[in-house]
Design brief:
This protein is of the alpha+beta class. It has one domain (11-64). The chain is built from two helices and two strands. It has a two-stranded antiparallel ribbon. The longest helix is centred in the last third of the chain and has 16 residues, at 54-69. The structure holds zinc ion. Zinc ion (ZN) is lined by residues 11, 13-14, 16, 42, 44-45, 47.
Length: 72
């Protein structure tokens, strides 16, 4: 499972590509609290989701995208 089969829509703000990465924390307590979470981040403007379980992060990222699509 490396997430290659997961569809990530483009950034809702700048249209840049999104990238998923494991959440990383230097603080051990935070690292433990957010174990098994990922963040989805735009590689262009840097906007990102909070650390979430993979499915939740994907849903948040993609649903936020569709929300901005119905702006007219
Ligand atoms: Zn962006």
């Amino acid at each position: 499972m490396d997430g290659k089969d997961i569809l990530l829509l483009r950034c809702p703000f700048c249209g840049g590509k999104a990238k998923m990465a494991p959440a990383a924390f230097e603080n051990e307590d935070l690292a433990h609290k957010y174990a098994d979470t990922v963040g989805i981040r735009c590689i262009k403007c840097g906007i990102s989701t909070p650390p979430l379980k993979k499915e939740d992060a994907v849903e948040l990222w993609n649903s936020r995208y569709s929300f901005t699509e119905i702006s007219d």
